[in-house]
Specification:
Distance between the termini of chain A: 36 Å
Strand content of chain B: over 45%
Number of helices of chain A: 0
Shape of chain A: globular
Distance between the termini of chain B: 37 Å
Strand content of chain A: over 45%
Radius of gyration of chain B: 13 Å
Largest sheet of chain B: 6 strands, mixed
Structural class of chain B: mainly beta
Helix content of chain A: under 10%
Structural class of chain A: mainly beta
Oligomer: heterodimer
Number of helices of chain B: 0
Helix content of chain B: under 10%
Largest interface: A-B, 23 and 22 residues
Number of strands of chain B: 11
Radius of gyration of chain A: 14 Å
Number of strands of chain A: 11
Largest sheet of chain A: 7 strands, mixed
Shape of chain B: globular
Chain lengths: ~120, ~110
């Protein structure tokens, strides 16, 4: 299995520009998660989808952030306009949620975003 | 109070020793507990999960859960320099949602 795929792996942009991060979950997984990791705040859940439907977006910092999952094999996280404080590593993770227990989440390699 | 708390470390142990990593959580309704390892510049990878009170062993790793005390730990026996990493404790707070601690950095010296 190829694992969770994220692109780009690195992104450097200027303040005010639009940034789009992409994720392909593991085939067969029905849940997808977007996280942000910084030194100060650790790993924070931004939003998660179940069967392509957004379930909880309470972690999305503000209206500049949006996420979509048009189908089971693709999701995007968009930041518009970007700000320097958005600089972080953004991880996508997926899981095969079936039972009542929390299933293991498998992480992608992450996108390192630097907003100048 | 943070939902999941870990000592940031670093925890330094000599090669061959037992490393003990601890985690406390605030939500008594939590049912699933995970330990992830994260090497510098890499993504978190699952080490172990535990659902029931008691111990769960997998090779050199043992996870311990005490729901009454809201306490989870990870023991690494015969620690190796390759175990040097940050260990993240994660607890489910609601259906499918995991809350991560900020991690404990482990350093194993040869």
């Amino acid at each position: 299995d190829a694992g969770v795929i994220q692109s780009p792996r690195h992104e450097v942009t200027e303040m005010g520009q639009e940034v789009t991060l992409r994720c392909k979950p593991i085939s067969g997984h029905n849940s997808l998660f977007w996280y942000r990791q910084t030194m100060m705040r650790g790993l924070e859940l931004l939003i998660y989808f179940n069967n392509n439907v957004p379930i909880d977006d309470s972690g999305m910092p503000e209206d500049r952030f949006s996420a979509k999952m048009p189908n089971a094999s693709f999701s995007t996280l968009k930041i518009q306009p970007s700000e320097p404080r958005d600089s972080a590593v953004y991880f996508c993770a997926s899981s095969a949620q079936a039972s009542g227990y929390q299933e293991t989440q498998y992480f992608g390699p992450g996108t390192r975003l630097l907003v100048l | 109070q943070k939902e999941v708390e870990q000592n940031s470390g670093p925890l330094s142990v000599p090669e061959g020793a037992i490393a003990s990593l601890n985690c406390t959580y605030s939500d008594r309704g939590s049912q699933s507990f995970f330990w992830y390892r994260q090497y510098s510049g890499k993504s978190p990878e699952l080490i172990m999960f535990i659902y029931s009170n008691g111990d769960k062993e997998d090779g050199r790793f043992t996870a311990q859960l005490n729901k009454a005390s809201q306490y989870v730990s990870l023991l690494i026996r015969d620690s190796q320099p390759s175990d040097s990493a940050t260990y993240l404790c994660a607890v489910n707070s609601s259906f499918q949602k995991l809350v991560f601690g900020t991690g404990t950095r482990l350093l194993v010296s040869p």
